[in-house]
Amino acid sequence: MDTKQEIFTLLGGLVKIHRGRYNPTSDAVWLAAFAPSGIKTALDIGIGTGGVSLCLHAHMPNIKITGLDISDEMLTECKRNAELNNTDIELINADIKAWRTTRTFDLVITNPPYFNGTPARHNAHHNADLPSWIARSIARVRPMGTFCIITDAATTATVIAEMAKKLGDIRILPLFGAKRTAERVLISGKLGTKGISTLHQGISMNTSEILRDGLTIADFLSRLDAQ
Q1: 115 DSSP 8-state letter
Q2: Cβ of 126: how many Cβ atoms within 10 Å?
Q3: pTM to 2 decimals?
Q4: 41: which residues sit within 8 A by CB, 6+ positions away?
Q5: Which residues of 5-17 are buried (b: 16+ CB within 10 A; e: fewer)?
Q6: First to last CA, the chain
Q7: In sequence order, which residues have a C-beta less than 8 Å from that of residue 196 and are 6 or more positions away?
């Protein structure tokens, strides 16, 4: 990919992104691919410049997406990216920990600020109260709806502990890069169920069927099972 290009793509060209203040990474593609099918409404918390939501829309074109972010600058870039992809996203400028609403959604999805330390220039993925972020996110899930998150492997215990207070049917999928230990972990759960947790076999973060061919993780795992 030419770093001088004004526009780059995700999902093999299905999603176009203006290069800007914060450029979505493969985390966005993986998180969107982890979402369950049949979703009508979704809330993307910390939507940033829209990578997760636009990939989610590519998988489910009829979904209605709401995006929440504390940054006006991020939302401005997200709006441009949504327009570039002819996608309608409702954008709300608010902090999830302070947002006052009674609205709930079939799916609440988030790529949260899970790192601690000196923030990067764009101030994403740094220094949030992760348990509070997760608890407030889960509060926006409708009964029998789903919460999905991608996080750094080092924060997995914190995330699962908070999710287990309210959610059942927790699914855990490690993602591996060049290291022998997982770098990222995808986790989902359903509100109002008490089903057992499932730990899936890990997947390489470079899996082209997900990143470029546009398969969902459910479709990819089904293909593996059929082999």
Answers
A1: B
A2: 14
A3: 0.92
A4: 63, 64, 65, 66, 105, 106, 107
A5: eeebebbeebbeb
A6: 33
A7: 168, 169
The structure tokens 């993925």 sit at 125
The residue whose two tokens read 């920990």 is 97
Q: How far apart are CA 177 and CA 180, in angstroms?
A: 8
Separation of alpha carbons 89 and 82, rounded Å: 7
Tokens representing 48? 């940033």
Contact between residue 167 and residue 191 where contact means Cβ atoms under 8 Å apart = yes
15-18 and 41-45 as β-strands: parallel, antiparallel, unpaired?
unpaired
pLDDT tens for the chain, 227 residues long, are 344 579 999 999 999 999 988 899 999 999 999 999 999 999 999 999 999 999 999 999 999 999 999 999 999 999 999 999 999 999 999 999 999 999 999 999 999 986 555 555 544 544 578 999 999 999 999 999 999 999 999 999 999 999 999 999 999 999 999 988 999 999 999 999 999 999 999 999 999 999 999 999 999 998 887 76
Alpha-carbon span 207 to 220, nearest angstrom: 10
